[in-house]
Amino acid sequence: LIFIMHLQEFVTVLVRDPRTQKEDSWHSYIDYEIFIHTNSMCFTRKTSCVRRRFREFVWLRQRLQSNAVLIQLPELPSKTPFFNMNNPHHVDHRRQGLQEFLEKILQDALLLSDSRLHLFLQTQLSPEDMEACVSGQTKYSVADAIHEFASLNRRFPIEDEERKKGKNDADSDSESSSSGLRPSDDSISCGCKASPASEES
Q: Are 122 and 43 in contact, with CB atoms under 8 Å apart?
């Protein structure tokens, strides 16, 4: 007799390690580490770690809702004017709400088919670059972006080659440039903790 074991698919998502980041001399914001561990066939990588801020979650929810109009998406934690980033209770309450939001989204097969969700969870691309990638306006595909971020390189080799040739378009320092895989500034602060699958290629 041949016994075939069907491993149940799982997706573990953790929203953790809130950190205060300075935007400029007057403004600061908090970003959170999103850790994914899964055996789901839906995911290009089985483990990943990125950092995202609250307004990027807002963008994600809006995009997912516009592409899945028949689904009532879970709510994000409310954006209260009384939110105090120096109050650990406020910060942890928001962190918990963001984790519950992602946990519910990742249980929906239709939402899991949206490339924006995967770019949000497994790359450090800005919302503008995620949108450009999904729309086919970048030299890299969604899978390319995820694999490239996994290797922890900050840009594609092709962009480096163009730089060496002295091409002006690749020399742009614009943060919103979508000509190369330019992660958002938040990526610099992603302090991924030791994970059980750090050998993931």
A: yes
Contact 191, 16 (CB under 8 A): no
Structural domain of residue 141, as residue ranges? 11-153
Where b means 16+ CB within 10 Å and e means fewer, 97-118 reads bbbbbbeebbebeebeebbbbb
> What total of structural domains would you count in the chain?
1
| Type of residue numbered 62 | Q
Who has greater pLDDT, 167 or 21? 21
Model confidence at 81, pLDDT cuts 50, 70, 90, reads confident
Residue 167 located in a structural domain: no
Q: What gap in Å lies between CA 135 and CA 60, rounded to an integer?
A: 15
Geometric angle at alpha carbon 77, from 76 and 79, rounded to 5°: 105
Residue 102 lies in a domain: yes
Mind listing the pLDDT tens digit for each residue in 117-152? 999 999 999 999 999 999 999 999 999 999 988 875
Q: Are 17 and 155 in contact (CB under 8 A)?
A: no
- DSSP result, 118-130: HHHHH--B-HHHH
At 96, which CATH number?
A: 3.30.1520.10
Pairing of strands 28-38, 11-22: antiparallel
Domain presence at residue 196: no
Place of tokens 């209260």: 80
| Strand, helix or coil for residue 42 | coil
Q: In this structure, is the dihedral angle defined by the CA atoms of residues 146, 118, 58 and 35, taken in order, positive or negative? A: negative
